[in-house]
Amino acid sequence: MVAVSRRKLLRNSYLCAAAMLCAPTVALAEDLPPLPGPDQRRRMAEVAADFMGSHDIPGLSVAIAVRGKLAYAEAFGVADRVSGEVLTPQHRFRIASVTKPITSAGIFTLIEAGRLRLDSRVFGPGSIFGEDYYPAHPGLLALRSPDFAIIEQITIEHLLTHTVGGWGNAANDPMFSNREMNHRELIAWTLTHLPLSAPPGNSYAYSNFGYCLLGRVIEKITGQTYERYIRDNVLGRCGIVDMQIAGNTLSDRAANEVRYHGQQAWDDPYAMNVVRMDSHGGWIATPRDLTMFFVHIDGFRDTDQLLGDTTLRTMTTPSSANPRYAKGLFVNSQDNWWHTGLLPGTETISVRTHSDFCWSAFMNTRLPDMGHSLDQLVWRMARSVPDWHP
Question: Does residue 168 contact residue 206 with C-beta atoms inside 8 Å?
Fold first, then answer.
């Protein structure tokens, strides 16, 4: 295992900064916001190094856009502690639940195209899936009453807002059980064995399984795989070309993908069915990729927007069950939007602020505080550039 010193982290950052400043790039365009100077970049690197040293973080990658333009992209530490491979801004990470706003955007492209509605029902006669996932064995048909009667009330909006009435990310989260099952098998198993605890629309329970269902909705409506539809109709329209769904094992690691490191012996990054997590937590990306995605849904006029104004207002309006979660995005009273991601060996965050900043920060390990420290870190880094006013 390779240890990385604070001095080495700072030295690598200065080398990357020099290369960025000397290279001919759009960063010199007149419409770009002020770029951080050498002293400001040094301060940002020091903040990152202190954070990494305090939390035993192998690698950290950060990208910040100001007024729709990428103004900072830097990586610190190592992509792989075992080999000592130096982390670069081009390395890709599992983004975990930062996948959810991407899936939500895919759903809203279909709504804007008139192919789907927020009140479209998901299960049962006349719905999107009909009885595709219902138990075929005659002896199980009794489950349709009352459990299936409740399930048949679920709409697209309930899935987007985590208000289906159950299937939360507690110990019995369906997405982390029955690893050998494919999507179809897992959905049928969940409908049969995990009844909802409340009618849809009444309560909030963060549901990975709900976003798994949204991925299958996209496939049902479009006739394409979830990955193909999102790449062509969401990511491609944001200029993002190298995102993909992650593999499960270390041997499945994609080109330019980091190695994930658990903080505890039981925190195994390679013991999950990540492929099956596609629409709730399956993508790999660079922080620049996700920052550019957020720039294209930020509601400002600096960049062509992926969705219309009315759609964005709907997407960022919370439900009555949880005033801090909208439809694939956390929101607050300051008009900031964001999402965090957390898996064994991975922690991520992407943010859109009311002051026209978008940023993403990814690590190849995870901390126990659900993204709060990582969020605070990037705020501190951004405030190292006084002209930015984040």
Answer: yes
